[in-house]
Write a structure and sequence with these properties.
The chain is mostly beta strands. It has a single domain, classed as Lipocalin (Beta Barrel). The protein contains one helix and ten strands; from the N terminus they run βββββαβββββ. A ten-stranded antiparallel β-sheet has the order 3-4-6-7-8-9-10-1-2-5, with helices on one face.
Length: 170
């Protein structure tokens, strides 16, 4: 049986620079991950994810509304951020995931190093595995926010970090 994504101990967060001197950080509170991990050969594995762009939170309501607005994520017209994995391979003792990210209707290829954090058995006997990865996306590649020449205070790179838990299903 497969490893199945578990939302309970998974997390998707984001960060970006502000004024070049500090990081703005936040979470996405709603997302779905699809895992298809048959056997031990990562070249046979598949992964995809969909993030509800409206679930973006930074603990500052005005900023969140601006980021959800038409100049930034435009969540009214583009309610999701999606990743469609194309290939997984072993790399440097961990994994490399290649696929397409779609934001605001723009799709770009990305490659992410995925770190296997390990496996543990919980007190109920369930086997759990954790992997982490992050991707740095230039927001101008996806038409997110004002163009770089506008001199906006928010940096051009947005980092999305994922911590994903899989649970073995007998």
């Amino acid at each position: 049986m497969p490893w199945v994504y578990s939302r309970n101990h998974s997390q998707v967060d984001w960060s970006c620079r502000y004024l070049g001197i500090m990081d703005i950080k936040g979470l996405f509170t709603s997302w779905e991950v699809n895992l298809d991990l048959p056997g031990d050969d990562p070249s046979q594995w598949k992964v995809s994810a969909t993030i509800d762009a409206n679930s973006m939170e930074s603990a500052f309501g005005n900023r969140d509304e601006t980021f959800r607005g038409p100049e930034w994520l435009d969540t009214e017209h583009y309610p999701t951020i999606a990743f469609d994995g194309k290939r997984i391979e072993r790399a440097n003792g961990d994994y490399r995931v290649t696929g397409d990210v779609t934001i605001k209707g723009v799709t770009k290829p990305v490659t992410m190093d995925m770190k296997y954090q390990g496996e543990a058995t919980d007190r109920r006997g369930a086997r759990r595995r954790i992997v982490t990865t992050e991707v740095v996306l230039p927001r101008s590649d996806f038409n997110v926010g004002p163009p770089p020449e506008a001199g906006n205070a928010v940096g051009q790179d947005i980092t999305i970090h994922l911590q994903i838990e899989g649970v073995w299903q007998d």
